[in-house]
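Hi support team,

I submitted a single chain yesterday and got back a structure, but I'm not sure I'm reading the token output correctly. Could someone confirm the output below corresponds to the sequence I sent? I've pasted both exactly as they appear in my results page.

Thanks,
R.
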Amino acid sequence: MKKTGRLELIWYLIIKRRKGLIFYILRLFSFFYYIVQILINFLYSKKIFKSKRNKNCFVISVGNITVGGTGKTPLVEYLSKYMTELGKKTAIASRGYGSKYENDKRIRIVTNGKELLMKQIEAGDEPYMLALKLKKVPIILNKNRFKAINSAVSMFDTEVIILDDAFQRRDIHKDLEILVFDGTTNINNFSMFPSGILRLPAQSITRADICIINKVKNSQSAQKIFEYIRKYDNSIPIFFSDYNFSSFHQLNNDMPINLDTIKNKEITIFAGIGNISKFDDMIKSELAPASINLIKFPDHYQYTPSDIKRILMFCNISDYVITTHKDAVKLKNKAEFPNNFLYSIISLKFEKEHMFKNTVKYYLKLSALI
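Hi R., thanks for writing in. Yes, this is the structure output for that exact sequence:
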């Protein structure tokens, strides 16, 4: 395991135990971080700090208040497809976290809605993956999200902008604020970073228009998270969602593989994602492997030649090696991959999809977009 992965594991073990000298030092830092966040929220609530607004488009923000993966990117994909179904000219604006030019002040276009214009290392994991899956939606990168919004409107005549990971951005006016929670998360860790996993105070929940609890299948925590949200807002719409595997593909040629072909086999899975345990659970549930071997990498990990060589070894000792689409885009063309090296495509499913869509549509009506 690389250094960043070890540090992440050590940090998580410390906050999980919730005792010891290091934990109490982290608690001290958490207190000061909490005060800073409360002060920022106060300044915005009193209009001392003001949000910028582009009145020519409808802005949807998808975000979270916790560190780690909650499922924002699949929701961005889902919303983009829904907006396209409604006939709205849609674009996605992202910071491009982890990309080679993350801090570049220029507007960068991953796709113009017609053709792919950047490589994975230039775009970052999620924007590149979205560009491959959303053929008609421009994707724009810039650390300055408001600059990205203005560019999308001027360049593509965009009506709806979807901001990826922007709940914490108080400097931008959002017409619809969607907050996503990981339904597998232990709420005992819901305290301020770095002694917990909250990147924003829990009171921030009241700023959201919709809350989504994701990854709820077989979850022991989803109901507790529901009750946790209700402590801070007793009327906000809350929806439950989860993932399904929609397909599996060979990495070397993107050919789909029949699901029954890979059931009850000896499988190795690996990924560099925020919550690999959910991926592991899905594989076990849907493929019922005879045996399973799991290899974890840090989120947004860039695979080295030695990593790839080691992973390829498992192709010789397992029936199949399976990774996520997010990881697959980073591995493409970096080696000769055998036919038993696969990647999965997932889709987001809502328990009350019709109600969720109607709620989103309601906010569009408020802005006279429908």
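A quick pointer for reading it: The mean pLDDT is 93. Let us know if anything else looks off.

Best,
Support desk
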